[in-house]
Amino acid sequence: MTVRDTVRVHGPDAARYLQGQISQDVDSLAPGDTAWSLILEPNGKVASWFRIHRLDATDFLLDTDAGHADGLVARLERFKLRTDAAIEFVDTAIPVPVVWPGADDPSDEEQRIRAGMPRLGAELTGDTIPGEGGQRLIDVSVSFTKGCYTGQELVARIDSRGGNVPRPVRVLVAQAPLEVGAVVAADGEDVGRVTSAAGLVALAPLMRKVEIGDTVSIGGVPAIVSAPAES
Questions:
Q1: What predicted TM-score, i.e. pTM, was given to this entire model?
Q2: Contacts with 124 (C-beta within 8 Å, 6 or more apart), sequence order
Q3: Dmax over Cα atoms in the chain, in whole Å?
Q4: Please, what's the b/e burial string for 96-108 (b: 16 or more CB within 10 A of its CB; e: otherwise)?
Q5: Are 101 and 231 in contact (CB under 8 A)?
Q6: The CATH number of domain 1-165 is 3.40.630.30
Q7: Using H for helix, E for strand and C for coil, what is the string for 194-225?
């Protein structure tokens, strides 16, 4: 089972506030629904990535990668002016397992990596723009039909340009075990560093000129830039 931290947001203004802050369409969620979402900084960079679960009209659970709830809470609290909603840490887990395309068990590190599923503090940092997390992250986390929310301009711009982002996260399959922090090189040039690794597979944000199917070197180990695993 994937270990995650949970935050509760509740109160008369909770739904309205979340709708104006996160990338998911809160108004479309019925009680019992769970969906992925991003919350962004005003400049459009990723503040947190999480799941939102609607309990009822005014009560929500948000869960995120273990150890990263503080950042989510801090970002939610920052713009909560004249808003009747409480934000608090809770021990209650969202009653829905984590699922991700291409991974039968996203808590298995190798499956997570092969599926191109990013993680906070690794592939997703305060310098990451949403499109760099991969098309799957955008597909499951972003509504392009909801109203305005903080940071959405960059997301809309990336969508209109077909996802041509500076450093997309790539899946790497190597001929020998890989380690986090190893330099990825292509044609003799450093193009990124490994952010997650499990055996022969890794994830790394790479310069956009490195495409799926290319051969790279990771600390001297040959590797292929691969498409994320399919379901």
A1: 0.94
A2: 46, 49, 118, 133
A3: 57
A4: eebebebbeebee
A5: yes
A6: no
A7: CCEEECCEEEEEECCCCCCCCEEEECCEEEEE
* Residue intervals in the chain for CATH 2.40.30.110: 169-226
Q: How far is CA 34 from CA 62, 83, 95, 181, in A?
A: 9, 23, 9, 34
Segment 165-200, tens digit of pLDDT: 899 999 999 999 999 999 999 999 999 999 999 999
Q: Copy the structure tokens of residue 150.
A: 């903080």
Phi-psi region of 109 (alpha: psi -120 to 50; beta: other; left: phi over 0): alpha
pLDDT tens for residues 100-145?
A: 999 999 999 999 999 999 999 999 999 999 999 999 999 999 999 9
What is 169-226's CATH topology? Elongation Factor Tu (Ef-tu); domain 3 (2.40.30)
In which residue ranges of the chain is CATH 3.30.1360.120 found?
Answer: 1-165
CB 172 within 8 A of CB 201: yes
Helix (H) or strand (E) holding 35: strand 34-40
Nearest to 205 by CA among 231, 183, 187: 183
Which one, of 136, 137, 5, lies nearest residue 66 by Cα? Answer: 5
Cα 122 versus chain centre, distance: 10
